Amino acid sequence: MANKHFACKTDEVPADAxxxxxxxxxxxxxxxxxxxxxxxxxxxxxxxxxxxxxxxCGTTRETDSTEFVYDRAGEIVRCAWHGWEFDIRxxxxxxxxxxxxxxxxxxxxxxxxxxxx
Amino acid sequence: MFIVDCDCHNYWCSATVLEPYMEGLFKDMFVRxxxxxxxxxxxxxxxxxxxxxxxxxxxxxxxxxxDNYLIMxxxxxxxxxxxxxxxxxxxxxxxxxxxxxxxxxxLCKAYNDYMIDYWLPKDERFWGSIVVAPQDPHLAAxxxxxxxxxxxxxxVLVSHGAARPYGDPxxxxxxxxxxEMGLPFAMHLGGQGGINxxxxxxxxxxxFWETHAILPQTAMTHMASLIAHGVFEKWPxxxxxxxxxxxxxxxxxxxRLDANYKALRKETPWLKRLPSEYFKSNIRMSTQPLExxxxxxxxxxxxxxMDGENTLMFASDYPHWDYDDVNKLHIPPAWRExxxxxxxxxxYTRLPRPMAHAAE
Lengths: 117, 360
Prior knowledge:
Number of strands of chain B: 8
Mean pLDDT of chain B: 95
Shape of chain A: globular
Distance between the termini of chain A: 8 Å
Number of helices of chain B: 14
Structural class of chain B: alpha/beta
Strand order of the largest sheet of chain A: 1-9-8-4-3-2
Low-confidence stretches of chain A: none
Strand content of chain B: 5-15%
Shape of chain B: globular
Oligomer: heterodimer
CATH architecture of chain A: 3-layer Sandwich
CATH topology of chain A: Rieske Iron-sulfur Protein
Largest interface: A-B, 20 and 14 residues
CATH topology of chain B: TIM Barrel
Mean pLDDT of chain A: 96
């Protein structure tokens, strides 16, 4: 059974970047999206870089022609080092979904955010 | 063993063999116009490197036009029991160096008619490549549609020297025509002159041997470009054959392409697979000149990394100075049947498949 651990206050999470916290010696990024708060391990499965400290952004949707459809604004984090794109909600790498960073359930009590693991 | 030679050069003694296949303005230019050599020289923008010994093997010395076939038959086709020789011409791909695309196209048309008329009927082992001048892709596409339906034509051929990388949408009319006619698109080392002014990164190197060793640079650019521009998404059945550009560089370039794509895939949202996967499904490399490290295991590990069992096709480059001998090709024994012939059947789909069985 997962335990809940205090992460940060809601007003500490910016709208356009992650709040980086350390919980039980684990570096974690907490993100605020339209549907609520999400948390990812701040370690990139590629080379161990500070994944959550990269830009929160959108990306191009897969197309069948030379068309550039900017999509999913604010739902993607690009690793701070090599730029691999991850889905903030699932922690999955966009090019290969079998590669993912650990994600954590987040709960809110008043203005306090908790991660569960 | 069933053997397909994917790079067999049908020489001429003199380019004047094309005169009966030309007419009007371009025949006048061909007969009376300035040339890069004496009468009989093929018009082209010459490269700044001169081979110090000439390109041909010194035991191949045709005097009359028909000697070109007779010597090839004796010293290559019969001697090594070649079952299929894909004719790749020789000088005609140099039409790609000319600034005048209309003249270049006229020269290619004349060559294709000559090749179909003179070479293909000579030997049942011959299958043809039609040469096009890529500097005007619409003229090239029209030429592919004009002669690409000939049942013994098996590919479209250009030089690897080019004015821009081959994945550029500028060239896409050529691939549209290739796809329509069911023909692979091949690039052969050459065309490093005239309007194709950047065959070497950082500027022209100095010596011929030095240059010849690094000319695959251009092929790297074309391979990356074809993949990045999504040519194989637009035409998933299209095969691209890279001839005489070396092979050992391929894994390192694929590794780099995959790594960069993983970070920046958003630039090319039309791609749906890793660059290396497009390579394995759509690009084939001819073996000659196969690199020769002191430790053969170093080469074989490299070939394995590019799925060489399925992506390599044997080529001799007859009768050039760096010819590869069928009996001395240093590839893993278990891959021989595929590389010497079976892989080519998947690319040159007009070759009848029973040929492979008949040869066994």
